[in-house]
Design brief:
By secondary structure, the protein is mainly α. It is built from eight helices and no strands. The protein has one domain (31-257). The N and C termini lie far apart (44 Å).
Length: 258
Amino acid sequence: MAPDSSPQPNSIFRSSNPTLSDKIFDDAGAAPRAQAMTIQGTVDRLFILTVLMLAAAATTWNWVGKPDTAPMAMGLALGGAVAGFGVGLITCFAKSWAPFLAPVYALAQGLFLGAISFAYEKAYNGIVAQSLGLTVCVLLLLLAAYKTRLIKVTDHLRAGIVAATGAVALLYLVEWVLGFFHINVPYLNDSGPLGIAFSLLVVFIASMNFVLDFDFIERGAQDGAPKYMEWYGAFGLLVTLIWVYLEILRLLSKMRRR
């Protein structure tokens, strides 16, 4: 982006989470106070989405471990992963549809998470409970740090996390493409010191998205964004929550392999 000496009002809405980008609230416009987005409303929507996701996850978790239902569970998990990705993309471009699409996304991702969590749990007993606990702790700690202003969201912080998140996404994309040619990216999946250090770094980068998302939603509520943006804000937070959980699972599995 070219330097600009003039103030940039929309910069307050920057977030490294791709579902919570600079122009979201600006495009949505303002709404009358009674019909405007609130922080509590966003929290309530996040709770609903989380319950839906956990319910779907419990379904595939229970089915994948039984011989007669395992094929169905794996099919649901694969379908959930594909559907979650597709619905997530649509939601990013159709924000006003978030009240309808966000629950679908939560259910689809839940189907996928239940199966993959079961696989991790089967390989490393107790790892899922540890990952869930750590994910919740990270969320609450960063929320406390944000609310007490121990972490201040500045333009430099935003730019750094945006760049770091983009680098991780690019690296994962390269790994996925190279996987078709049976080429492994060095240290990415290793359980050695460098592999663990890499996972720690990714967990940190993913977790810092929470801070930017809190700031994004708070300022959206202050500016009176439309009510449906509560669902969109909750959807964005859920994306970050899932990412952090999966990265913690990956980190703990590497540590267990040592």
